[in-house]
Amino acid sequence: xxxxxxxxxxxxxxxxxxxxxxxxxxxxxxxxxxxxxxxxxxxxxxxxxxxxxxxxxxxxxxxxxxxxxxxxxxxxxxxxxxxxxxxxxxxxxxxxxxxxxxxxxxxxxxxxxxxxxxxxxxxxxxxxxxxxxxxxxxxxxxxxxxxxxxxxxxxx
Length: 156
Fold this sequence. Notes:
The protein has a five-stranded antiparallel β-sheet. The protein is of the alpha+beta class. It contains three helices and five strands, in the order βααββαββ. α2 crosses α3. The chain has helices at residues 36-44, 51-69, 109-127, and strands at residues 22-33, 78-88, 93-104, 135-145, 152-153.
């Protein structure tokens, strides 16, 4: 049975040692909402380099650093991860989508969500020079598979 914070308020990491290992996958997204001009600048590249590629790298770092950032996340054996960055210049937005796969005793939802959020933050870091009103929105889990709770797919 999973441990929970007791009446003393002490928080604990849930015990997963007795759970079977299985293949798990999670897909998440985040959006950078800005102006068409700012998206054009990010796509073209800036004095910082290639912001879209930098965001992908930042997302990968987010996957690897999730258990260091979130106290209840277990370090897991990630077997693969993808970060895509899809600019829509006309709409003034960039969609980040992440997919994380693992073979372990616990899921990869937090790794996928962290990757999406960190990639979007990386885009924001550059976009703010062109649009101070830029914002990150819509960080959410799109799908997950594997584990005891089974599959999940977000409704649009």
